[in-house]
Amino acid sequence: MDNDLTAYTVKKLAKAAGVSVRTLHHYDRIGLLKPSIRTAAGYRLYGKSELLQLQQILFYKELDFGLKEIAALINRPDFDLISALESQKQLLKARRKRIDRLMSTLDKTILHIKGKIKMNYEELYEGLPKEQATAWRKEALAKWPDQVTHSEQVLVGMGKDEFEKLKSGFKENWETLAYFCSQGIDPVSEPVQQEIDKHYHYILRFWGKPGDQVEAYKGLGELYMADPRYTEVGGVAFGRFLKQAIDHYCK
Fold first, then answer.
1. CATH classification at residue 14
2. Residue 213 lies in a domain
3. Are 48 and 148 contained in the same domain?
4. Domain assignment of residue 237, given as a range
5. Domain boundary residue among 79, 104, 138?
6. Is CB count within 10 Å lower at the N or C end of the chain?
7. Are residues 146 and 219 in the same domain?
8. Measured distance CA(186)–CA(158) in Å, rounded
9. Are 135 and 71 in a shared domain?
10. Is residue 160 part of a domain?
11. How many domains does the chain have?
C-alpha cells in the first residue's frame, strides 16, 4: 500500500466512487484494478494509488473507451497521470460543447412544438397600428436593408417569451428616461446615465449585434432628436434630452 495509510474496503470504495461492489470484483478478476492488499481472510483493501487508478478508469469509461483499451492505456510504462488528466479534460470540454449544442437544439425543438418559438415578422411590430408598422418597416428597409434584415432574423429566432420580456424591459426603460426628462434632470447625471447604459444594451439586443456599437448608437441619438416620431412620449425636448444623454454616454 502507498504512504497514505487510509485503507478502503470494497464496499467503502464502491460507495465513494459510485460503482457497484460487483464492478470492483470484475475489475480485480480481469486485472484492471487490483487491491493493494488482500488479507488472509480474503478481504480486498485499496489505497490512494488505487483510488486514482479507479478515477482514470471511470474517466475513460465516460469517454466511451472499452475496458481493454483502458487497461492498455493505464498499464503503459510511460503512462503519466498528469498528462492523462489534461487530455481527459480537453476531451470532456469537447463533449460538453457537443452536448450544449444538442441541448440548445432540443430546447428550440420543444419550444417550436409548443408553439412558443414560431414567430413571424408581424409579431415584431405588435402594439403599433398595422399601417404605421408597415410604413416604418418599409422606410427602415430602404435606409438600412442589411441591418433591418439581420435584426428581424435575430428577433424572430428569439422566441415569443424572450421577445416579450425584451420589449417590456425596453418600454420601462424608455418611460423612465421620459420621466427624468419631464423632471428636468440633467442628461449627464448618474441616474440618467445608468438608464442610458440599459438603453444601449437593449438596443444592442434589438440590433442583434453584441460588442462595441458606440458610433452607431450615437447616430441613433441624432435620429431621436431629428425625427418627431421617436419623441412622441415627451415631444421635441425629449429628443434633445436623449441626444445629450447619449452623446455624453458615448464619450
1. 1.10.1660.10
2. yes
3. no
4. 121-250
5. 79
6. C
7. yes
8. 35
9. no
10. yes
11. 2
| One-letter amino acid of 194 | Q
Cell of 77: 510504462
**For the whole prediction, is pTM greater than 0.85?**
no
- The reply to whether 136 and 39 lie within a common domain is no
3-state percent helix, strand, coil for the chain, nearest multiple of 5:
70, 5, 25
Instruction: Please indicate, yes or no, if residue 196 is contained in any of the structural domains.
Output: yes
Burial of 24 (0-12, 13-18, 19+ CB in 10 A): buried
| DSSP 8-state class, residue 229 | G
All 3 cell numbers of residue 153?
Answer: 432574423
The answer to whether the CB of 32 falls within 8 A of the CB of 71 is: yes
Beta sheet of 44-46, edge-to-edge order: 8-9, 44-46, 37-38
Which one of 45, 79, 113 terminates a domain? 79
202 falls within a domain: yes
Q: How many C-beta atoms lie closer than 10 Å to residue 35's C-beta?
A: 21
Q: What is the pLDDT along the chain (251 residues), one digit of tens a residue?
A: 444 557 889 999 999 889 999 999 999 999 999 998 988 888 899 988 899 899 999 988 888 888 998 888 888 888 888 888 888 888 888 888 888 877 876 776 666 666 555 555 565 555 555 565 566 567 666 766 776 677 767 776 676 777 788 888 988 998 899 888 888 899 999 999 999 999 998 888 877 776 677 888 888 888 887 776 665 555 678 888 999 999 999 98
Q: Which backbone phi and psi does 8 adopt, to 5 degrees?
A: -110, 130
Q: What angle do CA 209, 211, 217 make, to 5 degrees?
A: 70
